[in-house]
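thread: overnight batch results

M.L. [08:02]
morning all. the overnight job finished for the chain we discussed friday. pasting input first so we're all looking at the same thing
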Amino acid sequence: MREICYIFDLPGEGLKIRVRIIGGCGSGKTYIARKLAQSYGIPCYETDNFVWDRRDNTKNSPEVRDAKLAEAVDAESWIIEGVHYQWGTESFRQADLIFLIRPKAYVQDARVISRFMKTRLGLEQGNYKQSFKYLLVMLLEWNRSFRREGIPAIMALTEQYQAKRIIVQQNHEILQHVGRYVQGKSVRETSDCHE
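M.L. [08:03]
and the structure it wrote out:
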């Protein structure tokens, strides 16, 4: 009779997972990516930090941006979050899971306003200096454009990956999906009970 053993890999101990999270401003992608990174001990990258040199807040060249992304994507495990989809498609191809966050517009806009107020009051650290002009651009231009043009483009771009693409309305749903994915990877059957 063959003896069957089960090996349990604990999250953060050799866990190999690649997660790509995309959504508009205020969708909750940075918050949930950081929460996942902390829970599973996986590096987390913001696509904004590939685009911008935060030392002097200047834009990186496309070559530098792409090299930073390639270095992140080449790692065994990662979480990459950001609004960008026109470049860096290899992050979708290499991901085990792709999440598109599509919150209700009023929730997304409320989060943008809340973040603006918190950073202006010094209650929260931001990657850049918030201004009223920038707030209006995020609310009236970027988020509207993302909902109108970005989401259909992302859906088309990730159509070939629909088996690993998950659309959520609330960012905390991602925790549940990743938890189930990790649970499925953490138990494996083996015939060698002395592993």
